[in-house]
Every structure is written in structure tokens, then in C-alpha cells.
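Need residues for this backbone.
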């Protein structure tokens, strides 16, 4: 007697294909959106959101923190004069001597890799450190010269062309 196999229903998946032009257009639109987002987010820092009468922000979130300045300093480690790079031990000693006494309340250090175009036009790639400082907006006039002394000290001590600085408004709550 012949064996009869039961018929098992199969599920066939159909994946829609995307034409190359549509795929490129979608990727382009995603790139444009992603590139524009940080600009819009940064622009929002300049204009505080409108508060409702109850004190809550219009989006429903609570308006937390106080107005602060976030200063980011970028320290390169390669020396343009051809000397040995600044070591981690040397950099941390610099932080202990120059930055911590001026900002004893705290700071954050990030290790990084950076690149920039030097005075001769050469693109330099190097290990770097980012130091983030937070301080109340009301203290900005007194903190500015302290930060500039830090930058000048590092440039002189390690023969650097510059120490980059970026300042941005922030709302901070500890």
C-alpha cells in the first residue's frame, strides 16, 4: 500500500524590492534629517521653552536645573616641534596642577582621537583629551580668565599651537 504524506501548508514570504533610486533617495533624506537635527537641538538651547502657568514646560516636562555654561576644552598630545607626545601621566599631572585648583567642584575628562589642520596646512591626527567644565552663568565673567590661563599654560608647557574651547548654555541640576 502506498504511503500518503499529509499536505503541510507552507508560508511564502514576499519581501518587496526597493529600486536603487528609491533606496538612494531614502538614504539621502535620512542623512539630511540626521544632519539637521543637532542644529535644531542646539538652536533650542538659545530659546527656553515657554512655560505654562503651573511652571511646567509646554511639552509637559518639568523645567529642571539652573542656567549654567558648559565649557569644553580640547587638548592635543602631539608636539609640533617633534618632541614626544604628552603622556597620560603628564596630562593628569597638568589637570591636578592647573585645572583642579581653578575648578575644585568637579570636571569630566574624556579620552579621544582628534584631527585638525595645523598652521602649515598639514592634517594632524592625535590622541586627545576633552575636559568638560560646568559653572553657573553668573560666574562666567570670573571663570573666563581662569579658563584662558589653563589654555595658555598647556600651550606653553607642551609646545601646542592651541587648545580648542567650546562654550554652550546648559540647564544643570545636581
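Answer:
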Amino acid at each position: 500500500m502506498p504511503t500518503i504524506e499529509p499536505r503541510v501548508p507552507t508560508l511564502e514570504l514576499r519581501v518587496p524590492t526597493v529600486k536603487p533610486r528609491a533606496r538612494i533617495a531614502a538614504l539621502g533624506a535620512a542623512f539630511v534629517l540626521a544632519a539637521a537635527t543637532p542644529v535644531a537641538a542646539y538652536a533650542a538651547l538659545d530659546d527656553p521653552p515657554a512655560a505654562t502657568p503651573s511652571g511646567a514646560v509646554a511639552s509637559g516636562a518639568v523645567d529642571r536645573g539652573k542656567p549654567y555654561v558648559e565649557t569644553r576644552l580640547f587638548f592635543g598630545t602631539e608636539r609640533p616641534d617633534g618632541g614626544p607626545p604628552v603622556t597620560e601621566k603628564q596630562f593628569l599631572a597638568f589637570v591636578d596642577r592647573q585645572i583642579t585648583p581653578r575648578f575644585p567642584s568637579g570636571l569630566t575628562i574624556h579620552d579621544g582621537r582628534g584631527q585638525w589642520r595645523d598652521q602649515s596646512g598639514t592634517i594632524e591626527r592625535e590622541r586627545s583629551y576633552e575636559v568638560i567644565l560646568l559653572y553657573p552663568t553668573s560666574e562666567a565673567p570670573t571663570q573666563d580668565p581662569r579658563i584662558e590661563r589653563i589654555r595658555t599654560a598647556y600651550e606653553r608647557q607642551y609646545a601646542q599651537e592651541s587648545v580648542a574651547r567650546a562654550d554652550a548654555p546648559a540647564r544643570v541640576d545636581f
